[in-house]
Amino acid sequence: MQRLPIRFPTRLPVWLAAAGVLALAGCGTVPASSYDDGRAGAGRAATGKPAAVPAKMLMRLTEVHEATGMTLLEGPAFGEDGRLLVVDVTAPEGEPKLMSVDVRGKTSRALFTDGRGAYTSAQFGPHDGRIYLTDFAGGVILSLAPDGGDPRTFFSGEVDGARMNPDDLAFDPEGNLYVSDSRGYREGEDRGRVVRIDRDTRKATVLADGMAAPNGISFDEEHRGLWVSELTENRISYFLLDGKGGAASRHTAIRVDGGVAQTDSIAVDADGNLYQALHGRPAMAVYDRHGERLATVEVPEADAEGLESATNVAITPGGTKAYMTVSGPAGGYLYTFKALAEGTRQSNGG
Q: Domain spanning 19-347: which CATH class is it, in words?
């Protein structure tokens, strides 16, 4: 697969091997029909093994771009109008970098494009309703009006003497931003950070550094702490917050057995379950808050050819229908599945 031109850097070093190797069809899982949905931890099979949850194709959104040799969908987030936002990280200038999708009508329309950004996530700000995009390439966080207009730079510049490679973001209830900074990724060095940006002053503070390409970031269901995935170490770290904008503690919470796949974005449902997206396999690993593997959501083997990664998910707010972004040489797709619990802000973007 062609690498991205330098103007469109990405956190993905190489598109990994053929899809036939990557879609390993969930070793050690059991059929979704074995769910025990009547008890806590629904989604875990009655046998005690992780359940295999099949995802169903909804629609194809994009094809591989001739200019970049790739398409990579990310950052799904539902707006108040029920439409789903999706970004295409590798879309060139003139093609949609942010799309609005009518999931019922299976149609999409362009909301935003520009000549500079490689946007890796999208989320609505809780305090102003604007759309916030992380520009991995430019080190910028951009905000847009809900209709995709009125672009404004919310944050740019250095943080503690170094520019960010902002990947995903999460908002606390007050509207402050928490950003996974994959700085050092291209050099293969553990120089990544978690950065907090104050909503009003836009002052950036480093909560943690020395991380291995931090990618997914999401609050837990009570906003007491942050889950952060580290792509090049296949682990999920947990940060207990101190209530004053800082981190009281940090530890490795989950080690993800991804095989050839790596930890991408994270979402958290109303019961506190973690949906860990996998780069290198069109699948997601689902864990409870104690680190127990509950399920593997996966694209059916018959669909898997040409699909290499499931990057992220949005669960319908107040519902359980989930929409997973899946990409590869076959194009960029939305797949659906039933989540283990209802969607909240923590499972809607980032």
A: mainly beta
